[in-house]
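Let's sit down with a protein and look at its sequence and fold side by side. Once you have written the record down, we can walk along the chain together.
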Amino acid sequence: MLEALITSKTRIKLMLKFFLNASSTGYLRGLEAEFGESTNAIRQELNRFEAAGLLEASTSGMRKVFKANAKHPLFSDIQSLVRKYVGMDEIIDRVINHLGEPKELYLIGDLATGLDSPDISLIIIGNTIDLDYLESLVAKAQRMVSRNIKYIVFTPEEFEQQKPRLNQEKLLQVWSHTD
């Protein structure tokens, strides 16, 4: 979807990196290693995003570190577009909202850090999750988002026990039940 609107693959990668998880940060050489692209292409796109006010920059030692400007008027719209591209909105609409009483949903793995991936890895937290029904919903959602969906289900208590063992940098809460 985004490829039809945005022809720069580097720009799409940067949008995923900074707008899927707004707390993500990156610097030029780190992004070069992460994306496997030339520093020149990445620098040009970073400069465009910064000039538009979509990214904020700060210095850390000798590095210029970038992060999304969550105060930008288009931040929510861009984040929504990126979530649709990844398929998160579809998963929440088609799976999570039909499960009964889920409490929270976390995106884990590469996508949580803003790296594109053919897999969507999720942690679903809830007490009364029908696993057979969940499997059928996930199968339908996979066809719609054209990505593999992997998941694990925890009760809130199990999640609290496992949370210290999880890589916090690759753990992004994308949904929670509001009472």
